[in-house]
């Protein structure tokens, strides 16, 4: 049985790669994609999601635009990381006759009410999810699993010394979801994503194998890799969002612990995950913090799925990379 999922995202280079991964996976049935303003503005994110659908012959899957800004804060975008077009300034052609619906929250609510065992993979600020819970909390009683790329436990932040972009952009939404979802949030934070680097060697391998997606992957990761060299002297790009999809597909990829987490909503630690690992507050656990990752296992899965049309060659040569 395929796992039914809604993907909430702000494409963004790593969201785009995560969508390619999910849409190429035999294990997932993507019921719809919801969009939130984040890395770039809402409409640009929507147009980029359409490009991922077109590239994977998945334009039958609906896209719903949601919130263009956080619950209370002004939207702080990340064009320095993802480019003005959200895809590394590659300016890929707009999808002709692509449809962007409105009403992300209503789509999430209706889908949860009308289907069994639907999960959500959230790859962006959690504004859409928070607003959907505010609108109809009962819909989430049907929710199967919730995986969120966001936050950080022991790793330094990527927005402030202590906070990660998704939870920094909308700390109120992240905190609200943790306190009102009614299910544990599987938090795929920087502790694990920083260990999944798509190296130039891997990108070159993807280019050499020359699959249908190879060109776009090598084009959009160029800008991303230049950012990571400037930001942290990393050679390659940290692919945050795809790990959340990889973990949802195969939970053995990451390990962590159950705990109570809330998000600091203001002040110097705005967006920080307050993780009560030692259970000092004796509160009901609302999260699973992932702290370890089998990076090789994930990256092999990621490359295999990106090059799904070249399965035999990948099988034959992927050993050159690891
Ligand atoms: O901190 C990384 C996260 O913020 C990723 O989801 C990236 O796409 C940005 O949204
Ligand atoms: Ca994202």
From TrEMBL:
Residues 5-299 form the Inosine/uridine-preferring nucleoside hydrolase domain. Pfam families: IU_nuc_hydro. It comes from the Bacteria. One of its GO terms (molecular function) is purine nucleosidase activity. InterPro entries: Inosine/uridine_hydrolase_dom, IUNH, Ribo_hydro-like. Keywords: Glycosidase, Hydrolase. GO terms for cellular component: cytosol. Signal peptide: none annotated. GO terms for biological process: purine nucleoside catabolic process. This is Nucleoside hydrolase.
